[in-house]
């Protein structure tokens, strides 16, 4: 008897918003176990790089697509303490709430426009959310809107989706439009057991 029903294979299927919510509702309780078993290292790698670019550990930051809070755990390990989380799924947020890490948890759809004022946050991180059939490249506009000028945004993009789904082109456009600069961009392990690589892009809001 497996300890959980594996759902990782289903994560990248074509979906609308309701299907994404339903997937994460089913997944929330066992997400950390399955991702741990598959050596999902993106949260750890992205948090470490983010910490290099954000030396002030007191900044008010937001974890977009925070899920169960895996990224928050690593941010706390690096000394960050003023962290809000945002996610579409109430069930994933319920798990994140149990960690006690996040000051505020916000249920919202990044693709529908956020009820967060311009330039609210000092920094933003988003891991595992810019991937196939979750949030498309246009979601980056909202991520950059809600941070202050000079803020760092640490973003992971699933390696296969990076060019295929238009992320490469979107980053180029954001730079061309003067919204941000790219301060670092690198290939990283993402889900090791599935041989999935990721792109970790560090942006600085203009
Ligand atoms: C693969 S999980 C990543 C969770 C966490 N950041 C991590 O690395 O474990 C993707 C998360 O994105 C959230 N998500 C998907 N579509 C979203 C949307 N339109 N707006 C906000 N969050 C969304 C899902 O609910 C899910 O928690």
Q: How would you portray this structure in words?
A:
The protein has a single domain, classed as Vaccinia Virus protein VP39 (Rossmann fold, 3-Layer(aba) Sandwich), CATH 3.40.50. The chain is an alpha/beta fold and 206 residues long. Strand 6 and strand 7 (196-205) form a beta hairpin. The chain is globular, with a radius of gyration of 16 Å. It contains 8 helices and 7 strands, in the order αααβαβαββαβααββ. Strands 3-2-1-4-5-7-6 form a 7-stranded mixed β-sheet, sandwiched between helices. S-adenosylmethionine (SAM) is lined by residues 20, 24, 42-43, 65-67, 70-71, 87-89, 92, 109-111, 127-129, 134-135.
Low-confidence segments, given as residue ranges, are none
Total helices: the number is 8
Mean pLDDT: 95
Tell me the domain tally: 1
Care to count the β-strands? 7
Please, what is the oligomeric state?
A: single chain
Bound molecules: S-adenosylmethionine
Helix-residue proportion: 25-40%
The percent range for strand residues is 25-35%
Radius of gyration: 16 Å
Structural class of the helix and strand makeup? alpha/beta
Q: Give the CATH architecture.
A: 3-Layer(aba) Sandwich
What would CATH call the homologous superfamily? Vaccinia Virus protein VP39
